[in-house]
């Protein structure tokens, strides 16, 4: 006979389901109903109470990306939901498994102009895989299980569960144990897998493009083994970083926007791209041959909604890891031909020299009172253990760390970056979720611009309360450097408008008030000691902030300036 379980309240049922999910941290800013916190008092689940709902969703998204299991965020209703929408947009774009639970107006008050009443389902549906409202207690168990299943299966993404206020205190009965929540990884169609393998075997000059959809799917370095069998160069998208070892001989850097000479020539010479877990978004294909028919792509994605048909080629639907294993077996007798591997090695050698020259040029051009960003990355590499996870923002100066080999991830390193939506402040907040998802002792470093960090500073009390030890390296050019660069193109230096203005940040006072470490650095000579001291604090369990003065003119490799959404390339081409 099936065992029947009765939970005293809806929130008690939710708390029990969170334990079943293996959730170790919940993020949010609840409304007036504190019942869930009351239930979680009796568990060892960490609860991060944020000052802003958007940051709460960012943190839960960082947790989900790092852990590979659902991040959970709990909020109130009305404006609490609209505040959270930017974070939900980012979770959807990043394919992060997120469960957002919100309060909802009582069923008998809908349509009466009740306090904070909003048609929340209509507001959020465009941003999520699935949204539902639970008006009756007996429907809650099924809704929780469906939410978890949809969040982690297919292309992962956010789901929304709204709890009508009148059922919060009602008992909830379920007729059996909670269903398993591990994602099911579908095998590819054998015919599609074999046809793609034949095309790969016949291809000259192949490249592997590893996207965020391959995250957590590179067990045993299966992707690198396939690359070796094919003699294929390995590129990643920004969101795919951390999936493969960047110290591998065939690793070539980040694709698209972040590829510079001489590696960009490999895309013009390639005969086939094998894209693992990438939607081939604009930033990933930026700078590819203008003629889309010139570069065929075999696309590997979990969900058909991620397919891109603008380029010739084929596709295989299914789990990236299982597809790679299938190809490795089918291509067991394949041996790379031609000089393509040697061409890749030659380009990498030239890239290393060019990177060194670029860093030297930036150092010579740095004005007094500013530190070259390339030196910041080099000092960070020396100061923090190699298994660190870099959590990234997407500003002007912090783009430096996207450019290999100025910043490289070894076999044990990790990375979490914003999606192509790049909401300001995501990286600063997501680092808290990443820290709580990663094993104790693994370093988490957030490299952020001062514009993004200023949006996040109000959460420093949250960071202190959560005990999430993160090293924040803040590159300070006085404001929004990317916008200033675009303004300078239009108005020149004499504009009466400004996005960057040197001024005290106030971070030191906040950090001191909450027992966090803080150092400000204005010369390269100060940097090693400041980072070493900050890392000692973080290793001991305390968040530390190192603010580094940088110059607006210190642009990443390959850039001569900004040009709207994207940088202008050397040679004048955007």
From TrEMBL:
InterPro entries: DHS-like_NAD/FAD-binding_dom, THDP-binding, Thiamin_PyroP_enz_cen_dom, Thiamin_PyroP_enz_TPP-bd_dom, TPP_enz, TPP_enzyme_TPP-bd. Residues 12-121 form the Thiamine pyrophosphate enzyme N-terminal TPP-binding domain. Residues 193-321 form the Thiamine pyrophosphate enzyme central domain. Keywords: Thiamine pyrophosphate. Residues 421-548 form the Thiamine pyrophosphate enzyme TPP-binding domain. CDD domains: TPP_enzymes, TPP_PYR_POX_like. Gene3D superfamilies: 3.40.50.970, TPP-binding domain (3.40.50.1220). The keyword ATP-binding does not apply. Belongs to the TPP enzyme family. This is Thiamine pyrophosphate-binding protein. It comes from Streptomyces sirii.
